[in-house]
Amino acid sequence: MIAWLIALPVVAAAFLGTRLLLRRRGRAAVRLIVAADAALLVGALALLTVALSGAPAQASGAQAAAQASGSGSAALIGASIAVAGASIGAAIAVAYTGAAALAALSERPELFGRAMVIVGLAEGIAIYGLVVAIILIGKA
Predict the structure, then answer these.
(1) What is the pLDDT of residues 36-62, one digit of tens each?
(2) How far apart are CA 112 and CA 106, in angstroms?
(3) b/e string for 107-139 if b means 16 or more Cβ within 10 A?
(4) 70 in the Ramachandran plot: left (φ > 0), alpha (ψ -120 to 50) or beta?
(5) Each residue's pLDDT tens digit, 83-93
(6) Disulfide: which of 11, 24, 36, 104 matches 29 by Cβ 3.0-4.6 Å?
(7) CA contacts within 13 A on the Cβ side of 100
(8) Which helix (H) or strand (E) holds 40?
(9) pTM to 2 decimals?
């Protein structure tokens, strides 16, 4: 919990800094954004390392045995990877299918129903990732 209290203001400040940098134009702004992304990646990896290397704070009995084995934390990390990967995949799929759907709708407006079904199928990828995450969290 303490890690989130520390990390949340840092992420918010990085987001605001990125918003301000995007208002500038040119290569300098892109370099600054890439540097900020690299710094956030290093910080996230450091936070993950600290979170995974620490011993359980106040676990007792069966909880201590389960947490000491690392199965609970591994399941939670797997759930987060499943959600993140599925969301990124769905975003890419919706971007391409949405652009194609808009192009098709500009020429033939009667294709609206078919185009929205295709975009909805692409969004289903994120739902599959969420289902996998729920299953993993249930086993943690």
Answers:
(1) 778 878 887 887 787 777 656 555 555
(2) 10
(3) eeeeeeeebeebbeebeebbeebeebbeebeee
(4) left
(5) 999 999 999 99
(6) 24
(7) 13
(8) helix 27-53
(9) 0.50
Classify 69-140 by CATH class. Answer: mainly alpha
Distance, CA of 10 to chain centre: 17
- Tokens read off for 61: 């009995």
Tell me the backbone φ, ψ of residue 111, rounded to 5 degrees. Answer: -90, 15
What is the rounded CA–CA span in Å between residue 71 and residue 134? 15
**Which residue is listed with tokens 């185009």?**
115
Contact assessment for residue 29 and residue 21, using Cβ atoms and an 8 Å cutoff:
yes
What single-letter amino acid sits at 68? A
Q: Token match 């540097």: residue?
A: 35
